[in-house]
């Protein structure tokens, strides 16, 4: 355990040296490439204004997303009513989507447990 801790300290030291040496150049390059997104003047008041604009813009988008949800649900209902006309490709896509949702659920459960796999002991 002590050797792994020393390895971790060594790696952390190397990473901090790399960041200290190259971090400033990377920061300047990143700022130069994204100047069009920087608001002038860069003040706390401007940041607060942008945060409020983002919040209320997302709040205003809820009715549109609500309508889109019900349109999608209506499409699914129509597919279910006409399931006898359903193609194998469409059923396969739906099955893959369901499998993907289940896999994300399982991955979320594993992450929530701290990346541990548990089982039942008999």
Automatic annotation (TrEMBL):
Keywords: ATP synthesis, CF(0), Hydrogen ion transport, Ion transport, Membrane, Mitochondrion, Transport. GO terms for molecular function: proton transmembrane transporter activity. One of its GO terms (cellular component) is mitochondrial membrane. It is found in: Mitochondrion membrane. InterPro entries: ATP_synth_F0_gsu_mt. It comes from the Eukaryota. GO terms for biological process: proton motive force-driven ATP synthesis. The keyword Transport applies. PANTHER family: ATP SYNTHASE SUBUNIT. Belongs to the ATPase g subunit family. This is Mitochondrial ATP synthase subunit G protein. It comes from Cinnamomum micranthum f. kanehirae.
């Amino acid at each position: 355990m002590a050797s792994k801790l020393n390895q971790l300290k060594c790696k952390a030291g190397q990473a901090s040296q790399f960041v200290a040496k190259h971090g400033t150049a990377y920061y300047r390059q990143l700022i130069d490439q994204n100047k069009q997104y920087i608001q002038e003047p860069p003040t706390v008041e401007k940041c607060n204004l942008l945060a409020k604009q983002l919040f209320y813009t997302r709040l205003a988008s809820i009715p549109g997303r609500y309508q889109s949800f019900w349109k999608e649900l209506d499409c699914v209902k129509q597919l279910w009513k006409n399931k006898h006309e359903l193609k194998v490709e469409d059923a396969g896509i739906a099955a893959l989507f369901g499998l993907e949702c289940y896999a994300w659920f399982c991955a979320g459960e594993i992450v929530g447990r701290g990346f541990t796999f548990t089982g039942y002991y008999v």
